[in-house]
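tl;dr need the bound structure. longer version: we got a ligand (PBG) that a collaborator sent over and nobodys looked at where it sits. i said id run it. heres the input, straight from their email, havent touched it
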Amino acid sequence: MATHEQKESTSSRTPLDPTLNVSEKSPAIHLPHKSNASGPRKINIGTRKSALAVVQAELVCNHLTKNYPDIEFEIHAMSTMGDKNQTTALSEFGAKSLWTYELESQLLDGRLDMVVHCLKDMPTQLPEKCAIGCIMEREDPRDVVVMKKGLEYKSLAELPPGSVVGTSSVRRSAQVKSKYPELKFKDVRGNIGTRLAKLDAEDSEYSCLVLAAAGILRMDWGSRITQYLDSKTEGGGMLYAVGQGALAIEVREGDDKITEVLSTLSNEESTLAGTAERSLMRRLEGGCSVPIGVEATWIEKGKLLIKSIVVSLDGVESAEAERLDEVLTVKDAEEFGKTLAQDLVENGAGTILDKINATRPAIKPW
Ligand SMILES: NCc1[nH]cc(CCC(=O)O)c1CC(=O)O
């Protein structure tokens, strides 16, 4: 019968809550999978339609097929509001839900059983009856520089004054600008392939893009990366987005069968760091999405360090904080994020956030 390859014994003792967005719940215990006659025969996996999203869904599907050879897994790729609207400035939407709304509707009405997302794209407050079923092992969470084909530069520091960096993220442009005030920034939209094509076009005004390493690596385009950016990068630090690099799978809240299937994909350190980062963001955003940078490092087992930054929408002001503490459970991670949020506010994030919240109403289509 189904002998899924449980690499570690974590599923039987990890104090991870399968419904991570409900912080008050007591930790659930994942029992090792036993083939169950009443278990699902077929599981429908939803994803966005972009090439990267489909690669990610296939990665999940391949793992699950290996772990559960008796179950049929089928991928359903669909366009979302976010895919269709490439013109409105991203920050004007306020909520991140435009990437997930259609998929969540299908999840709730049973056409889908799980939806694969980049954790980074998931709103901190999921719609009612939706939950995070698992967070998978994190791919490299850092941001990276991709130079235009034919340019001999590798790093931001080498770029001549006035060079144009392509990014639509205030978090990225604000952090780069504070270290390299002589660089210029321009919005660049579309899926990762489209962005690279715009960068490399002969008449392109961009010298480079700043992107997430994870997306490029999953597309197998790692050879285009010319510089990795992190807090220790020479010439200035760069913190990544909350959840960046981790895939998360959304399920119907209380769907124990699907959650059990997903326990084989869950990664403890990713789950705890992702939970802490999202708790931090939840405390700060007040309904609006806010440019927050984080960098999470496990100093040793159970000891988490997170560096964090909040930047103003114009990229001029910023506040920073970092925290090192023991994080063994999802509850610890939630607390860690909350405390770090308070530290950030004490260090000046409050004024930045008040301005953001005053100018941008949140949009919640559900
Ligand atoms: N903004 C869209 C998005 N959402 C997740 C990733 C990267 C993959 C990941 O973080 O898992 C990207 C592309 C990018 O920022 O370069």
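gonna send this back to them w/ a short note. The domain at 10-139+243-359 is CATH 3.40.190.10 (D-Maltodextrin-Binding Protein; domain 2).
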